[in-house]
Amino acid sequence: MDPLDTASSIPPPDNFISDVFSDSPPPSPQSTAAPHPTDPSDIPRLRSIHVTNGYREGITTAKEQALQPAFDEAYPLGASLGLRVGYILGILEGLCSAFGSASRRFDAAHGEVEKVGKAKEEEEERLKALLGEAREELKIEKLFGKEFWGHDGLWAYDVRGSDDDITFREVADQHPVVRKWLARVRDEVRKAGIRGAVDSLSG
Fold first, then answer.
1. Measured between alpha carbons, how far is 69 from 15 in angstroms, rounded to an integer?
2. From CA 128, how far away is CA 114, in angstroms rounded?
3. Beta bridge partners of 201
């Protein structure tokens, strides 16, 4: 055999050792292909997660910054209104109870309670109706209706203070509904001759 023919059958040196010393395997047809335009992307999902987390964090931070100061400011006013309403209803309930007792007498002989005097009975019924009306008008949702309060939480009715600074007691006393019932209760206690209650309502 001709030596030249044998040498020609041996591959070139660079091709012969390329499989041994190559840094990476030869590229496959799939790795060199361009990405398909319909491949799913994580960007919209990550954006949605970050937006949701940011919204929740913002709500939590806003609550911490605004809720407690608003509560601290509104609580004394609510307490003042509640005390006034409770006082009004308490006096009316006391008057109903007093006239109810006066219009009835216990008959020990027969073990029965009998009515005494139609006038006192009618007065008792009138006071009960008055108490029911007061309870309805002095409900908390009506006292804090939109016609009495602005969007900023401040009262929308006229309040005149004795000093430069208006107190919550003055705001409560001059609430239109509370002021109306304070006047009506003053008239009732004057009729009943309960002078101390009138003084307390005036103070």
1. 81
2. 19
3. none
Residue 73 CB-half CA count within 13 A: 8
CA–CA dist 134, 176 (Å, integer):
13
The H-assigned helical ranges of 152-194 are: 168-173, 176-192
* Buried-exposed string 5-32: b where 16+ CB fall within 10 A, e elsewhere: eeeeeeeeeeeeeeeeeeeeeeeeeeee
Determine how many CB atoms are found less than 10 A away from the CB of residue 123.
19
Structure tokens at 79: 């307490």
| pLDDT tens digits, 133-186 | 999 999 999 999 999 999 888 899 999 887 778 899 999 999 999 999 999 999
| Residue 136 amino acid letter | E
Cα separation, 191 vs 62, in Å, equals 53
Q: Are 175 and 148 in contact, with CB atoms under 8 Å apart?
A: yes
Find the helix or strand (DSSP H, E) in which 140 lies: helix 140-143
What are the backbone dihedrals phi and psi of residue 122, each rounded to the nearest 5 degrees, phi first?
A: -65, -35
Decide: 201 and 183 in contact? Cβ < 8 Å: no
Least confident range from 32-41, 60-69, 82-91, 122-131: namely 32-41
- State how far the Cα of 50 lies from the Cα of 57, in Å rounded to an integer: 10
The pair phi, psi for residue 112, each rounded to 5°, is -130, 160
Token pair listed for 112: 């029965």
